[in-house]
Structure formats: C-alpha cells, structure tokens
Amino acid sequence: MPWTIRVKRKFNAAHFLTDYHGSPEPLHGHTWGVEVYLEAYELDKGGMGIDFVEIDNFLKDLLPDYKLLNELFDFSPSAENLAMWLYKKVKERYPTLKKVVVWETENCGAEYSE
Ligand SMILES: Nc1nc2c(c(=O)[nH]1)N=C([C@H](O)[C@H](O)COP(=O)(O)OP(=O)(O)OP(=O)(O)O)CN2
Ligand SMILES: [Zn+2]
C-alpha cells in the first residue's frame, strides 16, 4: 500500500492484571502510549491521506484518560487486551486500519492486527 498514516497519543490510567502469575497485581498507573497505523490509497487535493487531526481527535474521545481500566472492561486490562479492544474500536471508524500498538511503559508494549 502506498501510504501508512501513523498517529500516536498518550493517556493516563490505572489498572491491575486480574491474574498475574496466579494472583491479582497491585493497583498501579501508567502513562500509556498508543499508536495506530492506517492505510491510505490516495491523497486529497491538500496532499493528505487521512487527516492526522481527525484521527487524533477520535483517539482523544475514545481513550479512557484518568480512569481505572478494571472498572471499564470485563477483561484483564493487559497491554495485549487493550490493543485488541482499541483495534476493534478504531477499525469501526477507519476500515483501513492495519494495526495498533499499546505501550504500557516506554519499553514494553503489545501490537494487535488481524
Ligand atoms: N505481556 C505483558 N506483560 C506484562 C503486562 C502486560 O500488560 N502484558 N503488564 C504488567 C504489569 O501491569 C506492570 O505494569 C508491569 O510491571 P513492572 O515490570 O513492575 O513495570 P513498571 O515499569 O510499571 O515498574 P518498575 O518497577 O518501574 O519497573 C507486567 N507484565
Ligand atoms: Zn501495569
């Protein structure tokens, strides 16, 4: 595909894995990072595939900033599960989505694609 449009965004949220090697993790927080990768097949007159600002606003509305993730989701909010949740949500709005990445820390994250 000719272009991949990439947008990153951060959000702050608390969580705990419900079963971390056999028992629940202690509650703690992260500044999470997310990245979305969208395919674009053509450009508009301004030279844009998909407007970064539009995608960023969509993510801003969607991401659970300053929330306790365990209260929002019926799954253990690991980076992997959050990446899958985010992929499905973004895919509904942007069908050309290729993958998402959810970073729990600067160095550790999970990618999801289908
Ligand atoms: N594959 C995954 N592994 C882990 C996940 C995950 O979502 N997917 N999550 C965690 C924990 O939630 C935890 O945040 C990580 O703990 P830790 O190693 O303690 O990392 P921190 O940077 O938060 O703490 P430091 O003490 O500053 O290193 C674990 N694994
Ligand atoms: Zn964590």
UniProtKB/TrEMBL annotation:
It catalyses: 7,8-dihydroneopterin 3'-triphosphate + H2O = 6-carboxy-5,6,7,8-tetrahydropterin + triphosphate + acetaldehyde + 2 H(+). Its EC number is 4.-.-.-. Binds 1 zinc ion per subunit. It is an enzyme of class 4 (lyase). Pathway: Purine metabolism; 7-cyano-7-deazaguanine biosynthesis. It comes from the Bacteria. Zn(2+) binds at residues 15, 28, 30. One of its GO terms (biological process) is tRNA queuosine(34) biosynthetic process. Pfam families: PTPS (PF01242). InterPro entries: 6-PTP_synth/QueD (IPR007115), 6-PTP_synth/QueD_sf (IPR038418). SUPFAM superfamilies: Tetrahydrobiopterin biosynthesis enzymes-like. Its cofactor is Zn(2+). Keywords: Lyase, Metal-binding, Queuosine biosynthesis, Zinc. GO terms for molecular function: 6-carboxytetrahydropterin synthase activity; metal ion binding. Belongs to the PTPS family. QueD subfamily. This is 6-carboxy-5,6,7,8-tetrahydropterin synthase. It comes from Hydrogenivirga caldilitoris. The lineage of its organism: Bacteria, Pseudomonadati, Aquificota, Aquificia, Aquificales.
